[in-house]
Each structure stands twice: as structure tokens, then as C-alpha cells.
Design brief:
With 397 residues, the chain is α/β, with parallel strands linked by helices. It has 10 helices and 19 strands.
């Protein structure tokens, strides 16, 4: 019987197919046998299969090296200054199968504004390369690879350029934020921050089409009635004790005060960034304030002698003693520290005048106060006698 044509062709092709399969199997077997070079290790029982990866190439060796450094030396692989090895050179080889990555240092150009640095680095990540060049990257700064025209000068056709982010000062619902961005427009910046730009919901102080500039400020406030909760301080008060053993006017804090804290909820009505009204809804005191305790000196150091001795020392004519005594007795009862809260001293004047005439220690210098009083009496009325007549008729001077 005649064999079908298709089956005949199949049997004719079978020997060639078997021969090809046999060749492939033998070649694969030889490859497996010779895939691992031997570094001359003496004890095969302690040997590891070490794979070296460099520039996309893989080299496998059988070695009983204890560390990465030793494995590299036995494989005659040199490590130059600036090259990086992972794991580190002193890493111990403990597993039967161990991988070592070798990154060779290369010359690169890094540019930051007008500053340009030519360095040798094994880093491949652009940010790591900029850091290797000594540049500090801040939030949102990026490093990009771009064409470099200084080939004749440096031998480089590309450079890593740092694009510094711009700082934007944002007032978001009363919270102050300093944000950095690579966005070109306000609209893109707000979109990156996931801030709603719907004018019915938020009022934005600048146009969405405005370009971002370094240091610009953007105020964003809610539209309509909003409920806000804020932390507020409660200012501490002051407990004052008068101390007649302490020099007049001197203050000593005997116990420091502490501000309290409260949580306040308000209903706020906003329109185009302007607060129209604010109503307190609730207030919770978290911490009560602690009053500051203060001693205030009331001791006045008076000169010796009678009131006439004081007037004489102040250069007042004896013929005016009666006028002066009448006015000073009625104004302050001859107390240099007398005050009604508005006027001070022997003749009850503004404290600024006493400070100007007698200095900050005016309360302890009644002689100077009398000289100041004479200047006032003569300057305003012409004499102590005239001043006395005004006081008797009006009850003040």
C-alpha cells in the first residue's frame, strides 16, 4: 500500500529533528557544567555560588570567600575610588547563593542655578547624585537630566540640573502654611493640594490663571456660614501684694503665672475673604489659668527734716511757705507717692512730668518734686501766691 504523502514527509524529517534535539541537550549540559568559574577555592564543601552584577552583565563563580571584599579579590575584580558595592565590602557571605552588585563611578555634571559641580559618583538616582555633589534638596525640588553644551570643556553631553521648587505662603482657613511647588499656575498648585477652587465654596485671593512666583501669598477662605473650632489661650491674671519693705515702684514676681486653655466653637459668616459675623456656639475650658503673684514696693525713702526743711532745700522763698504748704497739704497731704490713678506726687501732676523733671525715682525725691511744682506754679500762674489764689477759688490748680 502506498504511504500517504504527509506521513512520509514526517518520517523523513524525524532524523533531522532528533539530531537537533540531541545537539541542544548536549550543549545545554555543557553550559550548565561550565556556567560557574572556579576561583581556586580549596574546600568545595564551604564554597558558595556568587553572582557578580556589573553594567547589566552577570558573572558567576564558585568561592569559599568569607566576605564581599575577599570574593572580589579572588575574582580579580578591582574596586576603584568612588565605586559602590552592594552589599558592603565587609558584609559576610553566609548563604550558598549570594549576589553582589557593582556600580562604577563616572564623571557627571550637576548644576544648581549658577553653581556647577563636576564630580565622580556611582549613584544612579538623580537625587542621590545631587546629594553626592553637596547640594541639599528641599521638599518638591527635582533633579532632571538635560542636554549639556560644555562637551569640549568637560567631556559630558548631559548634566543633572536641579529645579528648585518655589515657596508659596498659604493662609488656608486661618491656618498659615509654607508650601513648595513646581506648579506653574495657581490653578495647578491648588489642584496639586486638592483644594476646591469653586468660587461658591472657597474665596481665593489671587486669580487661578496667575503664575506662581517664589514667595507669593495666597489667602483661601470659605464662603458662607462655617463652623470652626479653635484653641484659645486664657490669659492669667495678677495678684498684687503691697510691700512696704520694698522700694517704691519695684515689682517682684513671687510666683509665675500660667495661661489657661479653652476650645471655642464659632459660627462664622464669610464672604470674599471678609468675616461678616462671628457667634460663639460653645466653649470648653481645658485648663484653668494660674494667677501671677507679685509684690509691689511701697516704701518711700524721705529726706530728714520738716516740710519747711524740704521747701528750703527746694529753693522756695520763706515768704511762699504758707502758700506751698496749703496747696501741697490739700493735693497730697505731703505724701510723695500720693495718686488718684491719674495724677501723682506732692502736687498731683502727670507722671510723665515727674519723670522728665526728676527721673524714674521721683517718688523718693520730694525735694525735686517741689522744684517741679515751683516750675509749674510760676510757669502757669506767675507765682506761688497767684497759684494759691486760684486753688482757693476753684479748689484745684
Amino acid at each position: 500500500m502506498k504511504m500517504p504523502k504527509t506521513r512520509k514527509h514526517f518520517y523523513l524529517l524525524m532524523p533531522a529533528f532528533l539530531i537537533s534535539a540531541l545537539v541542544f541537550a548536549v550543549t545545554a549540559n555543557l553550559f550548565c557544567i561550565n556556567a560557574f568559574a572556579d576561583d581556586g577555592s580549596d574546600d568545595d564543601d564551604d564554597a558558595h555560588i556568587i553572582s557578580f552584577y556589573e553594567n547589566g552583565r552577570q558573572t558567576n563563580v564558585r568561592s569559599d570567600a568569607d566576605t564581599v571584599r575577599e570574593a572580589l579579590e579572588r575574582a580579580n575584580i578591582s574596586i576603584n575610588e568612588g565605586d559602590r558595592v552592594e552589599p558592603g565590602l565587609d558584609e559576610e557571605i553566609l548563604s550558598d547563593s549570594f549576589n553582589i552588585n557593582i556600580y562604577r563611578a563616572r564623571d557627571v555634571i550637576v548644576i544648581d542655578g549658577k553653581t556647577r559641580k563636576h564630580i565622580k559618583t556611582a549613584s544612579t538616582n538623580p537625587s542621590d547624585i545631587a546629594t553626592d555633589a553637596g547640594f541639599k534638596l528641599l521638599d518638591a525640588d527635582v533633579v532632571e537630566l538635560e542636554r549639556f553644551d560644555g562637551f569640549l570643556e568637560s567631556g559630558n553631553t548631559v548634566a543633572y540640573k536641579i529645579k528648585r521648587a518655589k515657596t508659596v505662603h498659604v493662609d488656608f482657613y486661618g491656618k498659615k502654611l509654607d508650601l513648595r511647588t513646581q506648579a506653574k499656575s495657581v490653578a495647578k498648585f491648588l489642584a496639586d493640594q486638592e483644594i476646591d477652587t469653586n468660587s461658591e465654596k472657597n474665596w481665593i485671593s489671587v486669580a487661578l490663571t496667575e503664575r506662581i512666583s517664589d514667595g507669593m501669598s495666597i489667602n483661601i477662605q470659605p464662603q458662607g456660614i462655617q463652623t470652626i473650632t479653635v484653641d484659645e489661650e486664657i490669659a492669667f491674671g495678677e495678684s498684687v501684694t503691697q510691700d512696704f519693705d520694698l522700694a517704691y515702684g519695684k515689682r517682684e514676681v513671687t510666683k509665675a503665672g500660667e495661661n489657661g486653655q479653652k476650645i471655642v466653637t464659632y459660627e462664622v459668616n464669610m464672604h470674599d475673604g471678609v468675616e461678616l459675623s462671628r457667634v460663639k456656639i460653645s466653649e470648653i475650658i481645658v485648663k484653668e489659668p494660674v494667677n501671677q503673684e507679685v509684690r509691689v514696693g511701697k516704701k518711700v525713702n524721705l529726706p530728714s527734716g520738716s516740710h519747711e526743711d524740704w521747701m528750703a532745700a527746694a529753693g522756695i522763698s520763706p515768704s511762699d511757705y504758707g502758700y506751698v504748704n496749703y496747696i501741697i497739704s490739700h493735693e497730697s497731704s505731703w505724701r510723695p507717692d500720693a495718686t488718684n490713678g491719674t495724677y501723682y506726687g506732692l502736687y498731683q501732676t502727670k507722671p510723665a512730668r515727674l519723670v522728665a523733671d526728676c527721673g524714674n525715682d521721683w517718688v523718693n525725691d520730694p525735694i525735686c518734686q517741689l522744684r517741679s511744682a515751683t516750675g509749674y506754679a510760676v510757669g502757669r500762674y506767675g507765682s506761688w501766691e497767684a497759684a494759691y489764689n486760684v486753688w482757693v477759688s476753684k479748689g484745684w490748680w
